[in-house]
């Protein structure tokens, strides 16, 4: 494939092309929509276009390359010095042609590359952006012009699409667990509404945190940090997602769900985000933010806030702690420098205690589920192994307090939650049975299936 | 960026502040509103750059001092026999991180307030500029249609 072969040409060549581009009197830099009649120098039009294509190929290929080797640190002069020497175009050019990969800390990113599907509270989504892309693109000056074909990718990153997907799946779990006949349209509307609300909340969060994100390794590739999007557009996108999302929930599902959605957006953007820099209480607020979507799913199905909804919310709430505390254990340096008040930095002992406490709480909550008639008694029994395992890892984290135990706990939490929700779903008590007040452990699953078919 | 470009350009992250510098395009027919927006953005950029460059430099320096003092207390040198730079493990560094965070807490609170205010102001100005431009474009369209 010629495209692949084009990746091989030394990066210096690409730099050379860029240099040539700069020296021609072209109106605008590589932009497909450049009206060609603007080009002053006619004979360079075709060359210009091919240069652009070549450059595109090189950068595209870099996106696919996963460079594992540790790049050497750049020795370039700080870009801010360049600002004063704008007239000397040569200086800028020299900065670009010897393209050397950007120095990066791999301590966090290497572990994140494994987490493609799963998402953790907004922490890992940036890892999926292949590191190779940065080494070339990061070192160049880019035009701050929005390109329409880049827009879907940019908006996906802005709305933290993977986290949104996880949120929607917890909401659908809440919907599925509600003891009412399943309605497909309602389910789809609720999921869509929740997804839109989550996109809006995430966008506003990124809008608020631009300078902090640029200083932390995990988040420095976000669209607003890289200037791929203006803050105004981010806010407009958030409004375009949030308002229809909440309207959809309020009008298409029921007002209670809409209210919960709006409340959650508010809690996340106006409470959690500023609180992150003021007090460690942010973790508890964040856990509530994570607990609300399944409650929303439940209320979307039933229209009322039952004990079952609160139990599901409670399970998600407890889950957040081992998940987040384990994650934040490895990010202490970045948090400290960035000015984030996290338990792992200021109260490490508390951090580990809380994580363990909530692992154990998960066992307790799973036991309460059949008491509230949500599931049969098989649920606490089947879920006991995974709950015990995460509690064991939580205990190891509490005792050892080192990187390996925190990572084990974190990765466990990633598969623990979907597994728990799945087991809960299969152990769901059917509606018919509830009327009989009977308890058929074996048959409940099939009965539940019967009820669910419209 | 090329002298003929009509848009802003954003550069690679600064070595000290990790922020990306922006070179703003000054259109010849810049209105007063657009000038206010550009100046607000420039001012915010300069202020952010100052804060983070100083903050990060202080962090690095204090980290070095901390490592040095701890190593000395342990009786080790900065570099071991093979010439590698000696480091402390995460648990020992945790004390430093906690300390640093609490020392700079007030500074961060002040900066947060500042940043939020600036961010809102800039975004609001952007909105105004966008609105004015849209109206101007609509008016021009209407004129063209009439002609």
TrEMBL record, chain A:
Keywords: Heme biosynthesis, Membrane, Mitochondrion, Transferase, Transit peptide, Transmembrane, Transmembrane helix. Residues 111-122 have a biased composition (Basic and acidic residues). One of its GO terms (molecular function) is protoheme IX farnesyltransferase activity. The keyword Transmembrane helix applies. It catalyses: heme b + (2E,6E)-farnesyl diphosphate + H2O = Fe(II)-heme o + diphosphate. It is found in: Mitochondrion membrane. InterPro entries: Protohaem_IX_farnesylTrfase, Protohaem_IX_farnesylTrfase_mt, UbiA_prenyltransferase, UbiA_prenylTrfase_CS, UbiA_sf. The chain crosses the membrane at residues 229-250, 256-275, 282-301, 377-397, 409-426. Residues 103-127 are annotated as: Disordered. Pfam families: UbiA. PROSITE patterns: UBIA. It is a multi-pass membrane protein. Its main location: mitochondrion. Belongs to the UbiA prenyltransferase family. This is Protoheme IX farnesyltransferase, mitochondrial. It comes from Melanocharis versteri (Fan-tailed berrypecker). The gene is Cox10.
Automatic annotation (TrEMBL), chain B:
Pfam families: COA8 (PF10231). It is found in: Mitochondrion inner membrane. InterPro entries: COA8 (IPR018796). It is a peripheral membrane protein. Keywords: Membrane, Mitochondrion, Mitochondrion inner membrane, Transit peptide. Coiled coil: none annotated. One of its GO terms (cellular component) is mitochondrial inner membrane. One of its GO terms (biological process) is intrinsic apoptotic signaling pathway. Belongs to the COA8 family. This is APOP1 protein. It comes from Melanocharis versteri (Fan-tailed berrypecker). The gene is Apopt1.
